[in-house]
Write a structure and sequence with these properties.
flat; 4 helices; mainly alpha; single chain
């Protein structure tokens, strides 16, 4: 395997190691919530909207690396909402 491919494999393993833990799942949900994956990026200010899209794309990249599908994303959202409700009760 070439060095570049080996590095890419190592990065994927690192992402999975970080985000497969319970803490990693909480952090991923927080990133999703705060970087416009769960809300619209639309605003009348084109520069602000471009910034929001950049933030959103970063989270989409993480999810792509982790191979998170729609079902897994829904599960993450549900768990995240449940945790939020624990703190507001």
């Amino acid at each position: 395997m070439a060095k570049k491919e080996a590095k890419q494999v190592d990065i994927v393993i690192d992402y999975k190691t970080v985000f497969d833990s319970e803490a990693g799942q909480r952090v991923l949900y927080d990133l999703m919530r705060n970087n416009y994956l769960l809300s619209t990026t639309y605003t009348s200010d084109i520069n602000e909207m471009a910034l929001r899209e950049g933030s959103r794309n970063s989270i989409l990249r993480i999810m792509s690396i982790l191979k998170i599908d729609v079902n897994k994303m829904n599960e993450l959202i549900q768990k995240g909402l449940e945790r939020e409700n624990e703190y507001t009760d």
